Protein: ATP-dependent DNA helicase RecG
Amino acid sequence: MGDIEDKLATVIGDRTSKVLTDVFGIKSVGDLMRHYPRRYMVRGELTDIAQLSEGDEVTILAQVHSSANRPIRGRKGSILEVIVTDGSQKLSLTFFNQAWREKELKVGSQGLFAGKVGVFNGKKQLAHPDYQMIADGTDVDDATKNFAGKYLPVYAATAKMPSWKISQCVEMAISSLDEIADYLPDEIRSSHNYPTLQQALVQLHAPLDLDHADLARERLTFDEAFLLQLMLVMRRNELKKLNTVSRKAIKGGILEAFDAALPFELTGGQRTVIAEIESDLAQPHPMHRLLQGEVGSGKTVIALRAMLAVVDSGGQAALLAPTEVLAAQHVRTFEKLLGPLAHGGTLGSSDKATRITLITGSQNAAARKEALALAAHGDAGIIIGTHALLGEKVEFNDLGLIVVDEQHRFGVEQRDALKVKAQKPPHLLVMTATPIPRTVAMTVFGDLDVSTLRELPLGRQPISTHVIPVLEKPTYLERAWQRIREEVSAGHQAYVVAPRIEPGSDSGSDIDFLFGEDSPDIASVSVLAPELANGALKGLRVAELHGRMSSEEKDSTMRAFASGEIDVLVSTTVIEVGVDVANATVMVIMDADRFGVSQLHQLRGRVGRGSSSGLCLLVTGSPVGTSARERLDAVAATLDGFELSRIDLEQRREGDVLGANQSGTQSHLRLLRVLRDEALIESARSDAENVIATSGDLTSYPALSAEVARMARNAAIDYLDKG
Ligand code: ADP
Ligand code: MG
Structure:
């Protein structure tokens, strides 16, 4: 008898197993067992033919109604047309020169038919489909004995490997196997009333009834969540065991001086998070914490305080920002908040003071050289940079803390590339302004402790958002420009966001379009800016900002905007995250349907950051009733980033959420859906915590331990790295 690790070829023969490997990556018996059916067809319940659409790849259950073989006019050969029916509608199957099939496709018998739905002379048809006739229960010897059950599994299939062939292979695999060892601890399995692994696999492929299939699927889905949580909890515990330098603020140090000079009261939420971070930093083990917060909730000052605590302890802190605009802005913000405390080492400066330095890819050689020296010798306590921070030449004197701003732009590898620059494992604070639902955080950042900031600083006015449908209300756009003029004459500033830098060419964008085809009509910064400056916004100071400008140009434009020398910034999404100019009160987003929900929420978070209320206008040519329009209406309807991120995630393919390797057979997360399976993930997490709490590592559960190790090898949990 066989084992789940056995090569498939030992069970089903070389040729078939080669096709399964080539098409689905299925190599072992276990891989095949994990090629789960998508759904079931019920024997006798014929597929509704009216539902089939042209172009669909389908597997249907139907009954042969009639058949006729006729010669092709004017040519050699014959055509066999078999009409199948679901009882009301008919579908035609055509075969060329295969009259012999008439014997197999007996009138009155039922079969599975697979192919691509075409239309010929106004009739739906499958041209030379694959088929498998189903035994009617009398001819026991029929090779299709796997169809003896009432439920027929339907698999992801191809023309080379139709669903029923997979089903036959699975059946052979099942009967070749010994009892499959169950890695799930008995007590956990029985607490959920789950079947054993063997039972679950059998019931999923050949269910007694749909309840059994559902329970089997739940058990296997739970397994995925449980193994993943075990892996993450173990990883978190491993990290906690590492030794590092504890970093505490000192009496009379820079942090204290900073607090005393802070121009605003910290919110309750900020204070809670600060306490969590301070207690982490005081440990002799590295912090691994995710700070997720609403847009504008004030994460920057929290990060700065953590960095100052490290500076107090004699170390350095690095902040990794996703864009140059943002890195430069952080330097400005920190310098403003720190005042003289940011100018250490200069004549007459306070001995508490430190220095801030910026490292980016496009700075000139002299600036780069100076920045590298400041970081390497430890003169700079705070080092801010983009990807360039990860470069080989960048060295630190004593790197104690890494802050990653807007985590979703960075991968784990990048975090790690920075970590190796420290002598001892550094503390890590990851920040994201894209709020994500709890179970997503648990799944994706499950090795991090999570702090959440929901509260906005007091006195913040809500942003009101409106959709401007240019198709239905072309005059509303005029009104939008009018609103900008009003805000500017009231002393405020405005953003106009366009999806493209230049019209037409597909390289002219700072983003990959999330939605819709590229089209030459999409608004671009280079066209819109002069158009507005000479037209609707004549007389206002209009400037452009986009990713093709040099970093000096970008920086000086942002500085000018921040200091009020520019009224209207026409920009791409380079301002999407983090940009903070409190005096900006209105944003017009052109072709807003081109952006995702979370992205729009991020963008509008750039206005209403001060004490004046913000206005965001979403301009779109999408008609009512389209999903693009619904997305915009959803953004207009709520300011709750957590709710919007749910909507966003629901609209993406799950693979985008959980990372790269989702579709292939190699992935261990085939059934789990982070939003749908929230309850399951919660209970898997607490089961995982319990198992680890009682067993330390998994030595008392060798089978489980091996399964987790296997998952750790396979799972590429990259989260939104790609996005
Ligand atoms: P985000 O969480 O989106 O990164 P920021 O850290 O940029 O938000 O903060 C948004 C704005 O709110 C900044 O101008 C910041 O100085 C200000 N801010 C932060 N905390 C407070 C507070 N407690 N009271 C008033 N303003 C605050
Ligand atoms: Mg920020």
The pocket of adenosine-5'-diphosphate (ligand 1) is lined by residues 264-267, 270, 293, 295-301, 433, 457, 578, 580, 582, 609 (CB under 6 Å). Residues 210-241 form the longest helix (32 residues).
